[in-house]
Design goal:
The complex is a heterodimer of chains A (266) and B (253).
Chain A (H helix, E strand, L loop, with lengths): L1 H17 L4 H4 L2 H16 L14 H9 L4 H9 L2 H9 L1 H4 L3 E5 L2 E4 H27 L1 H10 L4 H31 L8 H28 L16 H19 L2 H9 L1
Helix pairs in contact in A: 1-8, 1-10, 3-8, 3-12, 4-8, 5-8, 6-8, 9-10, 10-11
Chain B lengths: L2 H16 L17 H28 L3 H15 L4 E3 L4 E3 L4 H8 L1 H19 L7 H25 L4 H28 L5 H37 L1 H6 L13
Antiparallel strand pairs in B: 1-2
Helix pairs in contact in B: 1-8, 2-5, 2-6, 3-4, 3-5, 4-5, 4-6, 4-7, 5-6, 6-7, 7-8
The chains are: A mainly alpha (266), B mainly alpha (253).
Chain lengths: 266, 253
């Protein structure tokens, strides 16, 4: 129960963060979506042993979370949820790949350590960029941005419906799981039989609710489309933001800045 | 790619699926794991399926206004079901079902692909399950393979005269295993050198076995239970979804 209830509370917190009023929140969602996509593509385009050239990319999440007033502790906690996979992918590399990879001052690092650090960095960077996008924009605006970017409307409408219903259905699922836990001995998790019944009844309630919601929507003039009063405007600051960051990403991608600084200092 | 990287990937897959499945969701490939060429390739593979899925859903929604909200609610249900932890008796831990088999049985493979793709995007952004760069790979393994295999198995078993419960069980079981086999292939292809993908695929697939073998069976029971419950309580829905003909309602179980 705690897992799904925690997720539910997390959705609410993300929704609250996306209602902020920094200049990043006010940017056109298309700008933020495109910038995030360019960032992620730049990060995953490096080879498995790249570490130092990835470090400058930390600037993007650092700057955006600062400007957007996002709680850094929360960002790190969210990103830490995906780190176990990356950690385990790289964990045994230092033990098994002992070929010389690079030198750090007097230390000689093996290829295993490099690939371990690289995978951690890439997952951290890409995951934090995705988190920053949702926290600064919100799911409904991301969906509408996708529509303006020629993603089929039927798909966008689905995302909007899903986002609306997730809150309602998660509440329903949490209630069902809580009712079970309160009636069970020592708050044990449901066995398979009970679990199947809970999921089955959730589906039944969903279908009933779908009928009620459809009738309510039709009575309010639903014509098959989801209309919004939000209008988007791509202004000069959006162009500057997008072009500026894409230029920075290109510089970081094609110039190894830490190596360049080392050469300058040396 | 080094031998060390490949061995550790197999160990990682095993560890994530058995030691900490509540923290690391193994059926989604995490953000940043796949290199760019493979991330792009899997996205390109998913595009034709998404094109035909959009075309079919658009056609059905044009004649049935209630189809879009229904699809949205079922997507949300798949999203929530796949976030609910279920116990794995053999591993002594919990993991998550895919949920695509039941949507494929109810909606058909194409609409189910669209449902899966939508749920995966929302999961990637809201819950950090999967990612933007691995969206295409996750669409292929979970939405496309899960839906196509689930639907094909269900229809095949029904044509062979199997009851709803048996056909849904087989669909849930094989859709789940096919999803994990594809995930293993994607991981192997993403990190293995050409010519070594086969052995690496077998290593990763073997690492998935301790949890995925039982969770496939559980997913089969779950799909079977849901279809049986619908047949008992709401047979009209099964008729609407073209799973049963009206004359079959009384003798469906």
């Amino acid at each position: 129960m705690s897992h799904i209830e925690t997720s539910y509370l997390d959705f609410g917190r993300l929704e609250a963060l996306s209602r902020g009023d920094s200049f990043l929140h006010r940017l056109d969602p298309r700008t933020k979506v495109l910038t995030t996509v360019f960032f992620v593509l730049a990060v995953i385009s490096f080879d498995a042993y790249t570490v130092s050239a990835l470090l400058p990319f930390l600037l993007y999440p650092a700057v955006l979370s600062g400007w957007g007033g996002l709680p850094v502790g929360y960002l790190l906690k969210r990103v830490s949820l995906v780190m176990p996979f990356a950690l385990m992918v790289g964990l045994f590399n230092p033990l098994l790949d002992r070929d010389p990879g690079a030198t750090l001052g007097p230390l000689e690092l093996s290829g295993g350590w490099l690939s371990f650090a690289s995978i951690l960095l890439r997952v951290f960077l890409a995951s934090s960029a995705a988190f920053i996008l949702i926290a600064l924009t919100g799911m409904p605006d991301i969906a509408l941005a996708l529509e303006r970017m020629k993603v089929p409307r039927i798909f966008v409408v689905q995302i909007l419906f899903v986002y609306r219903y997730i809150f309602v259905l998660t509440e329903e699922a949490v209630r069902m799981m809580r009712a079970y836990t309160l009636r069970s001995v020592h708050g044990r998790r449901p066995g398979l039989g009970i679990y199947a019944q809970i999921v089955g009844h959730l589906l039944l309630r969903t279908l009933d609710r779908a009928r009620r919601i459809y009738l309510a929507m039709v009575s309010r003039g639903f014509d098959g489309e989801v209309h919004t009063l939000r209008t988007f405007h791509l202004g000069l600051r959006d162009v500057i933001f997008l072009v500026g960051w894409v230029s920075v990403f290109s510089l970081f991608r094609y110039q190894n800045i830490p190596a360049w600084i080392e050469r300058m200092a040396g | 790619m080094s031998l060390a990287f490949k061995i550790s990937l197999a160990v990682a897959t095993f560890s994530c699926t058995t030691l900490m499945p509540d923290q690391a969701d193994a059926m989604h490939i995490s953000e940043g794991i796949l290199p760019f060429p493979w991330a792009a390739l899997w996205f390109a593979v998913s595009l034709p399926f998404l094109f035909f899925a959009v075309r079919q859903v658009r056609k059905r929604a044009a004649t049935d206004l209630s189809y879009k909200p229904l699809l949205g609610l079922l997507t949300a249900t798949v999203f929530i079901v796949s976030a609910m932890p279920i116990p794995i008796p053999t591993a002594g831990t919990c993991s998550h079902p895919c949920g695509t088999a039941i949507s494929a049985i109810l909606l058909g493979p194409l609409a189910s692909i669209l449902v899966g793709a939508g749920a995966l995007l929302v999961q990637a952004l809201l819950m950090a399950h999967g990612g933007i760069s691995t969206w295409g790979a996750n669409i292929v393994s979970m939405a496309i393979v899960g839906s196509v295999v689930g639907f094909a198995v269900f229809k095949t078993f029904r044509r062979m005269g199997a009851g709803l419960a048996v056909a849904a069980f087989a669909a849930g079981l094989l859709a789940d295993w096919a999803t994990y086999a594809t995930t293993a292939l994607e991981l192997a292809a993403g990190v293995g050198a050409p010519g070594e993908i086969g052995p690496l695929f077998l290593q990763i697939a073997a690492a998935f076995v301790p949890t995925q073998l039982p969770i496939g069976i559980i997913e089969g029971f779950m799909a079977s239970g849901m279809v049986t419950l619908l047949a008992k309580r709401r047979p009209d829905m099964l008729v609407r979804f073209h799973i049963l003909k009206p004359e079959e309602v009384s003798s469906c179980l």
